[in-house]
């Protein structure tokens, strides 16, 4: 979850560290810092709060830091210890300075041991302890690189470190065993390391994704890889990233989140093109790949995910059961991994994770692989850890997503679920071929329809903005829906909580009377998602119940549904049902609830792209 950047070479190191850490701000953090060599000594500048605080410290320091060509930087999301300057990274232990991402699970035992050496940790973190281990190995005669390697083998838990030593200027050493780490060679001479590929794109698009148990050593000559346990040199394959720096910019939008909401039509087209065999004319022609072979053999599917990905998986259950007639279960990875589940023969477990690094989801896939259960991954990041933990992967093509609140990755995850369901429906003749063909043809038209409604002069922007202006002082929000709209209600409430920091709940509309309706009064807003589908009439009945208790009603329904509209204080129209199959309506509802949450957050004045306490990639439990 934390952000790491390290550089050694011939360029201004601190400038690269700061720019790289800014690229990683989307991951979420509450303190930051940098360390760099100046005249043979390592200087540290760190602070609680935002990266701007570190920049102020640097600008006030003497001598100027522009000549530094080796350093490491970090943005910390607090786990062990409060988000204070003392607990911020980098940490210094004698001549050792380090940054760390992840959790050292045996830190209490290590701390007790280190105290017996007569050492006193200066922070509340588990991270600092690693520096004492390295320092002791060096004192025992180990080289700096071997000291880092041997010390890391004592750690329990998934994490990564990047380390420097005043005794070895011009060298940075990184180790990965869980939390992601990426390395690249500077074409001008040198090396750059980061916890994500994005900070590297200003320097190069050719990167190396470290595997578990990799040690990387960077110098002005380049990079070398070693095995953690043996110290033997190993080779790693280079990957060319197809994202450009320009794609990371806001391109005139006020926030990355708003830009990424508007990018959903393109993301859907790119994902269709990457997964389908467009040379074929039959419906849902998935291109031949290992994941398709595993899907073909599935007698039952189990979807595991967390957060927004779990909501996408809930929609996947609807589609897979409705179209492919395959029994499908959806599990929260954080709960499932600690159960003793019964896995029936013929089950395929699919882990859905935007980053490909979600710790709980990866743990489930690893458990299933050890049990011999076939596994698939669904992710937006090539060469992420899920590609090694799963037997095969279906990739979304949403491109880089900087806003912490998932938008276009959610839509493309939904799309992958639908494509799998449609493919299996055709393959197994599980549904009417005519119906599946209509679904596919409507799906191909969907991105254009979505684009038209997202335009500033389209059906949504002005009405959503106006609704937000009238709602933002409400004391709380309920999102309700049935069928396909229920997971969208959950997602809408999650988005609002994430970025606007207001109480919001998502409910299956029929469950309101089982307790939550006690919360309803004239200060509560209820967003009712009721397109003209098979659940519409029942949902309208639930609307009447909350309206009778004074709630402010925001309706999301089909354009022309005058009865529904007459019951609402605010109305957000969906295209006519004749324009789109009802199974595709979630792709239109998703950006509506995203935009509503976005507009409310803007009015609240929150940090939309970097909401407090949250991280983009949840790499710890």
> Which structural category do the helix and sheet elements fall into?
alpha/beta
Shape: globular
Largest sheet: 8 strands, antiparallel
CATH topology of the largest domain: Glutamine Phosphoribosylpyrophosphate, subunit 1, domain 1
Described by its quaternary structure, the protein is single chain
Question: What is the CATH homologous superfamily assignment of the largest domain?
Answer: Aminohydrolase, N-terminal nucleophile (Ntn) domain
Radius of gyration over all CA atoms, rounded: 26 Å
Major beta sheet, strand line-up? 3-2-4-1-10-9-11-15
Number of strands: 25
* SS summary, helix count: 20
Give the helix proportion (percent range).
25-40%
In CATH, the architecture of the largest domain is 4-Layer Sandwich
Residue share in β-strands: 15-25%
- The low-pLDDT segments are none
Write structural notes for this entry.
- By secondary structure, this protein is an alpha/beta fold.
- It folds into 3 domains: 3-244, 4-Layer Sandwich (Glutamine Phosphoribosylpyrophosphate, subunit 1, domain 1), CATH 3.60.20; 249-454, Glucose-6-phosphate isomerase like protein, domain 1 (Rossmann fold, 3-Layer(aba) Sandwich); 455-621, Glucose-6-phosphate isomerase like protein, domain 1 (Rossmann fold).
- The protein has 20 helices and 25 strands.
- The strands form 4 sheets. It has an 8-stranded antiparallel sheet with strand order 3-2-4-1-10-9-11-15, with helices on one face.
- Helix 13 links the parallel strand 19 (375-379) and strand 20 (392-395).
- Helix 7 (256-262) runs antiparallel to helix 20 (586-604), helix 10 (307-324) runs parallel beside helix 14 and helix 16 (461-471) packs across helix 20 (586-604).
- The longest helix has 22 residues, at 433-454.
- It is globular.
- The model has no long low-confidence stretch (mean pLDDT 90).
């Amino acid at each position: 979850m934390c952000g790491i950047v390290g550089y050694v070479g011939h360029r201004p190191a601190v400038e690269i560290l700061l720019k790289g850490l800014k690229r990683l701000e989307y991951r979420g953090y509450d303190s930051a810092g940098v360390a760099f060599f100046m005249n043979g000594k390592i200087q540290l500048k760190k602070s609680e709060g935002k990266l701007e605080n570190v920049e102020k410290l640097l600008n006030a320091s003497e001598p100027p830091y522009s000549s530094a060509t080796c350093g490491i930087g970090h943005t910390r999301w607090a786990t062990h210890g409060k988000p204070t300057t003392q607990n911020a990274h980098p940490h210094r232990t004698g001549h050792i300075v380090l940054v760390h991402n992840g959790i050292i699970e045996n830190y209490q035992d290590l701390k007790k041991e280190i105290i017996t050496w007569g050492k006193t940790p200066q922070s509340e973190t588990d991270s600092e302890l690693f520096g004492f281990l390295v320092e002791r190995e060096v004192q025992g005669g180990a080289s700096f690189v071997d000291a880092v390697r041997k010390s890391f083998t004592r750690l329990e838990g998934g994490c990564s470190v990047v380390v420097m030593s005043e005794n070895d200027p011009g060298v940075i050493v990184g180790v990965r065993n869980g939390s992601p780490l990426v390395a690249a060679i500077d074409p001008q001479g040198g090396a750059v390391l980061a916890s994500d590929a994005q900070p590297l794109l200003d320097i190069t698009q050719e990167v190396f994704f470290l595997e578990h148990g990799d040690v990387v050593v960077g110098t002005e000559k380049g990079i070398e890889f070693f095995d953690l346990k043996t110290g033997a040199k190993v080779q790693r394959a280079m990957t060319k990233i197809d994202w450009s720096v320009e794609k990371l910019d806001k391109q005139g939008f006020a926030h990355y989140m708003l830009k990424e909401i508007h990018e959903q039509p393109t993301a859907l087209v790119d994902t269709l093109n990457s997964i389908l065999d467009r040379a074929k004319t039959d419906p849902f022609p998935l291109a031949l790949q290992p994941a398709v072979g595993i899907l073909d053999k599935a007698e039952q599917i189990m979807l595991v995910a967390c957060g927004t990905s779990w909501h996408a998986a809930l929609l996947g259950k609807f589609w897979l059961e409705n179209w492919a007639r395959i029994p499908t279960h959806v599990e929260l990875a954080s709960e499932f991994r600690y159960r003793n589940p019964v896995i029936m023969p013929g089950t395929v477990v699919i882990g859905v994770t935007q980053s490909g690094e979600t710790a709980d989801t990866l743990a489930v896939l690893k458990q299933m692989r050890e049990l011999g259960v076939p596994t698939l991954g669904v992710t937006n990041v090539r060469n992420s850890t899920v590609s090694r933990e799963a037997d095969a992967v279906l990739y979304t093509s949403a491109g880089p997503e900087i806003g912490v609140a998932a938008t276009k990755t959610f839509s493309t995850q939904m799309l992958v679920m639908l494509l799998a369901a449609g493919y299996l429906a055709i393959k197994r003749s599980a549904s009417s071929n005519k119906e599946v063909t209509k679904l596919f043809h409507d799906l191909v038209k969907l991105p254009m329809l979505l684009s038209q409604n997202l335009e500033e002069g389209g059906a949504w922007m002005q009405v959503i903005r106006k609704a937000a202006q009238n709602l933002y002082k409400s004391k709380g929000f309920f999102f309700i829906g049935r069928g396909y709209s229920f997971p969208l209600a959950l997602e809408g409430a999650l988005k609002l909580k994430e970025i606007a920091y207001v109480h919001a709940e998502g409910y299956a509309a029929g469950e309101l009377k089982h307790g939550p309706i006690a919360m309803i009064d004239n200060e509560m807003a209820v967003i009712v998602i009721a397109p003209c589908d098979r659940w519409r009439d029942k949902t309208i009945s639930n609307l009447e119940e909350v309206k009778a208790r004074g709630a402010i009603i925001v309706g999301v329904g089909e354009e022309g549904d005058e009865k529904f509209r007459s019951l609402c204080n605010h109305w957000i129209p969906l295209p006519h049902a004749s324009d789109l199959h009802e199974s595709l309506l979630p792709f239109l509802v998703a950006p509506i609830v995203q935009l509503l949450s976005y507009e409310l957050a803007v009015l609240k004045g929150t940090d939309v792209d970097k909401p407090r306490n949250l991280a983009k990639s949840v790499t710890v439990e």
